[in-house]
Amino acid sequence: MEKSIIVGISDMAVARTPAVVATYALGSCVGICLFDQVAHVGGLSHILLPKRNNNDNYMKFADSAIPLLVQKLEQIGAHRLRLRAKIAGGAQMFNVGRSDSALGNIGQRNIESVKGALQTEKIRIYAEDTGKDFGRSIFFDVNTGVLKIKTAFNKTYDI
């Protein structure tokens, strides 16, 4: 039987198949899904901000959450060289008049930080649905690697 695991904001989870790992309400946040199809394991991280400061919650930030997610996947049998990534989110949710303000471009900064962290870890992004101006919820099937996206407008599609 397939189990469902819900990941909150600034949190992550790893699982073996069969499992679906989900997170809700990705606005400017980015959901990062990593999976190893050979080891049949995967995980999801819901990051809130691009760069870690002195905050103790490593899972809140792209630059510290992604290495931690990789480490947790390796602990349950993943091999770093087989990991694949799919990402979603990073919307511009706030119309603050200037997209170059700290609040106005947080989604884009999150996307860039996620991509940079994945590049540092040498993990290739196989699919993404990022940016735009709407929220998303995501459902990641660890068995197939399919990422189902449901938009704030109830449109559903797979990447």
Tell me briefly what this model is:
The protein has 159 residues and is α+β, with helices and mostly antiparallel strands. 18% of the residues lie in helices and 38% in strands.
CATH class category: Alpha Beta
Uncertain segments of ≥5 residues (pLDDT<50)?
none
Task: Kindly report how far apart the N and C termini lie.
Answer: 23 Å
Domains, number: 1
Number of helix segments? 2
Strand content: 35-45%
Description:
There is one protein chain. By secondary structure, the protein is an alpha+beta fold. It has two helices and ten strands, in the order E-E-E-E-E-H-E-H-E-E-E-E. The strands form two sheets. Strands 1-3-8-9-10 form a five-stranded mixed β-sheet, with no helix packed on it. The protein has a five-stranded mixed β-sheet with strand order 2-5-4-6-7, with helices on one face. Helix 1 crosses helix 2. It has helices spanning 62-75, 106-120, and strands spanning 3-7, 11-16, 19-26, 30-36, 41-47, 84-89, 124-130, 136-141, 147-151, 156-158. It starts with a strand and ends with a strand. Helix content is 18%, strand content 38%. It has one domain (3-154): 60s Ribosomal Protein L30, Chain: A, CATH 3.30.1330.200. The radius of gyration is 15 Å and the shape is globular. The model has no long low-confidence stretch (mean pLDDT 93). The longest helix is centred in the C-terminal third of the chain and has 15 residues, at 106-120. A hairpin with a 5-residue loop joins strand 8 (136-141) and strand 9 (147-151).
